[in-house]
Target: Restriction endonuclease
Amino acid sequence: MLPLLQFAQDGKEYKVSQLREELARKYRLTPEERRELLPSGTQNVFDNRVAWAKTYLVKSKLLGAPKRAHVKITNRGLRVLGEKPDSINVAFLKQFDEFSAFISPNTSKDEQEATPTSNEFHTPIEKLDTSFRDINQKLAVELLDYVKGMDPYKFELLVIDLLQAMGYGGNREEAAKVTKKSGDGGIDGIINEDRLGLDKIYVQAKKWEGVVTISAIRDFGGTLLAHSAQKGIFITTSDFPRTAIDYCEKIDRTIILINGKHLTELMIEFNVGVAAKKTYLLKEVDGDYFEA
Model:
């Protein structure tokens, strides 16, 4: 926030996009750093932080917003720069009543001052994304415990349900053929890669205690060869050794390895074995409405 305010100290009116480029140059950000995304993948981290820095400075009356996406330093902003602060963070901005009212409209100033504030700058969107990720990580751990407790055959059905939810095959009957409990030759399921069944994907779904052995992966590769199959998915509730990953990268068939962690992440993403508890709709100002 301090560098942003400093760039505007000449009193001119600036586009926020101009200040964003100035800040990127100041911090010598690489193109890769500029493209870094928030955990949600919806926005660049840098762009999001600049936008919130601008919002916080405007709400503190250190910057004015003469028109949409433009800012201009205020007399208060010039006074703050004249004090030569080492940095400007949320704790610093709480001295201004306008900012305190913005971040905690229903909290008294004494309560705000009693609340510890980190000097590290995290935007509300970053905090929301981080909280959402933490909740899902805890959910994934709980979900994996349930999956590990399933009957092995029901686990195979779960895997087919997940692949079908991800878009493989058509309806439940068309999507997959789950093989019998025994005598399946190392194949637990066969699922259509597309609605028309132009190609088949062979599935191995195993509840496993400890790391899956490389011999199990080699056996699966041999089974694909015996079926003249080109594509396979090996899914487990545990994990794979590095040797298994290396093996799958070298053979002339495609084998995708999905461990327990990845399995639960996919189940959460595609709503298999989970149910929505609460939905939050994030909104922003529709600038086109006000300009029309």
